[in-house]
Design goal:
Distance between the termini: 9 Å
Number of helices: 2
Helix content: 10-25%
Number of strands: 6
Radius of gyration: 17 Å
Strand content: 35-45%
Length: 112
């Protein structure tokens, strides 16, 4: 099992969720986060004063999938979240040792 963590632009959340649902991936967690990468924020003007917005709003998706579904999941997120502009986000893949569904006690692939 693998955990796919994707940091994307907030307005792309519905597109990504629908695209993942279309390939059979329905379980995910979405968290509102703030951060920056190479784009390093931007300057805004408020009541005549300039200020720097260092941390930009993003959405972090956490999805646990079977190992066989990882590449399809990555490709789907990439295609749905891409705008072609800086700040489109990143995807991180990590191994998951164990999953337990609290309600039933099912474990690992049965619990996904």
């Amino acid at each position: 099992m693998k955990k796919v963590e994707a940091v994307i632009k907030p307005f792309k959340l519905d597109d990504v969720r629908e695209a993942l649902s279309d390939i059979g991936i329905t379980g995910m967690t979405a968290i509102e986060v703030k951060g920056f990468g190479r784009q390093k924020g931007h300057t805004e003007l408020y009541r005549g004063a300039e200020y720097v917005v260092d941390f930009l709003p993003k959405v972090k998706l956490e999805i646990v999938v079977k190992e066989d579904d990882v590449e399809r999941c990555i490709e789907t997120i990439t295609n749905a979240a891409r705008t072609g502009k800086i700040g489109d986000g990143k995807i991180f893949i990590t191994s998951v040792e164990r999953v337990v569904r609290i309600r039933t006690g099912e474990t690992d692939n049965d619990a996904i």
